[in-house]
């Protein structure tokens, strides 16, 4: 029957002592006292029933048994060091990001190449979901969430405020006539009528929308998909105009009313609270915050709404 392994602490002490041939040096490397090193070696020798070291005035020498054991133990620990080093290097080189679908599709994805050019040593793995990431369970480094920024156990950095307004195709907008009023939208098909943004926007416009959430209509639950449906003329979508400037400039989408509502939500960059986040997380955080600041500065009329929170831990 094979002998069971001695305590790992004793094996670790033997490996260090056999390399240094000095208990004091081994103790310094392992952050132990010399007495603790001697005790662990004694335990190991008693377990094996043989001496592993001969004590000398200026250090120690390996016995015949110790000399046979040392190379195998050192190779085993070298392999462990290489494996842990490779894992750490791999983890540091891959940044896993979980982002809400609309932010990922309309803002993040078109700009990720800029981050990659600035940080070629970091590969980004992007996951899109409107469900909150469980950082304790999921292999995710950082997330982009929509909310109020009050998530226990997470550090959050505000990226931009959320402001929304009805948007539609030019053909559908033509049905509103030359002088449309907000209440006229109730005569058109609404996309995602159960979305609370509709209620918020009509309330701000001073319109009693009734049980709008019970109306029939497309239920897509994604701005990205709702915008595609609106462009196709399938109804009016409640969207963030800031994410669809290109579609508006190209005449594919129309914002018939300048009124934009807010649910007091914003987009936040989040990651677990630690004394110091990993370098790859700090690099991504600094990049996304500065990028949004730069874009907000190019649009003075939107700067106040778009500028991210400059406070970072």
From TrEMBL:
* SUPFAM superfamilies (alphabetical): Periplasmic binding protein-like II, Winged helix' DNA-binding domain
In terms of superkingdom, the source organism counts as Bacteria
Q: Where is the HTH lysR-type domain?
A: 6-63
Alphabetically ordered keywords of this record: DNA-binding, Transcription, Transcription regulation
> Does the UniProt entry include the keyword Transcription?
yes
Which InterPro entries did the record assign?
A: LysR-type_TF_proteobact-type, LysR_HTH_N, LysR_subst-bd, WH-like_DNA-bd_sf, WH_DNA-bd_sf
Q: Per the UniProt entry, what is one GO biological process? A: DNA-templated transcription
* Keyword Transcription regulation assigned: yes
State the Pfam families in the record: HTH_1 (PF00126), LysR_substrate (PF03466)
Q: Which GO terms describe its molecular function?
A: DNA-binding transcription factor activity; sequence-specific DNA binding
Task: Supply the NCBIfam families for this chain.
Answer: PRK11139.1
What does the similarity note say? Belongs to the LysR transcriptional regulatory family.
Query: Which protein is depicted?
Result: LysR family transcriptional regulator, glycine cleavage system transcriptional activator
| The species this protein was found in | Afifella marina DSM 2698
